[in-house]
Amino acid sequence: MNDTDPYEEEAAVTREFERELESLLVNAFARGAVVEGTWEISGSVGAVPEWTVEIVKSAGAETEYDPDLIE
């Protein structure tokens, strides 16, 4: 018998997704990628839905980081 709460499992998976997404964005930004924008993502498997992902920099989130200064 499995005593795992499905809501707890779902919450854990969601937290892991958020950590992975944050890591992806931070690392891409640090390497100089333009992360602000809108992307259409299609799954390669028919059962996977299509997604629209929009990334917008938060107001007041200005940074002094300039990836061009690293080069």
Please give a structural write-up.
Helix content is 35%, strand content 14%. The longest helix is centred in the first third of the chain and has 25 residues, at 6-30. It starts with 5 loop residues before the first helix and ends in a 16-residue tail after the last strand. It is extended. The model has no long low-confidence stretch (mean pLDDT 85). The protein has one domain (6-69). The chain has a two-stranded antiparallel ribbon with strand order 1-2. It contains 1 helix and 2 strands, in the order H-E-E. The chain is α+β, with helices and mostly antiparallel strands and 71 residues long.
Class by SSE composition: alpha+beta
In the predicted model, the low-confidence regions spanning at least 5 consecutive residues are none
Shape: extended
Beta-strand level of the residues, as a percent range? 5-15%
Number of strands: 2
Essential attributes:
71 residues; alpha+beta; 1 helix; 14% strand
